[in-house]
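Example record

The entry below shows one chain as it appears in the dataset: sequence first, then structure tokens.
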Amino acid sequence: MKTLPLALSVLVLSAPLAFAQMNHSDMDHSNMPMSDEMMEGAVHTKAVVNSIGEGTANVSHEPIPEIGWPAMTMDLAMMPDAEMMGDIAAGDSVTLMLIKGDDGMYAIGAMMPE
């Protein structure tokens, strides 16, 4: 479990910090290891982080009409190269970027504090 804080620290230090706000049209995704197809299908939502574990995060998110999800609390997988844009801990309000995988499931591609 001690590796998670270290991994998050590395991600925070390597994440592009040039984002003033989470406006998808203003975001520079060029450094993210995702295909154009994955980026095209990305959706964003505001959420509260309940917990972060090994490869998953439990969040309570707002409705996501683009994919037909109501507001809910759920565990979401985190992509192996998920970008953590700042210090994020349980209880924090964040904006999530969700990426649809080849399996049809959405995973967290990026998380940024509000």
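Notes for this example: The CA atoms of residues 48 and 93 lie 4 Å apart. The domain at 3-113 is CATH 2.40.50.320 (OB fold (Dihydrolipoamide Acetyltransferase, E2P)).
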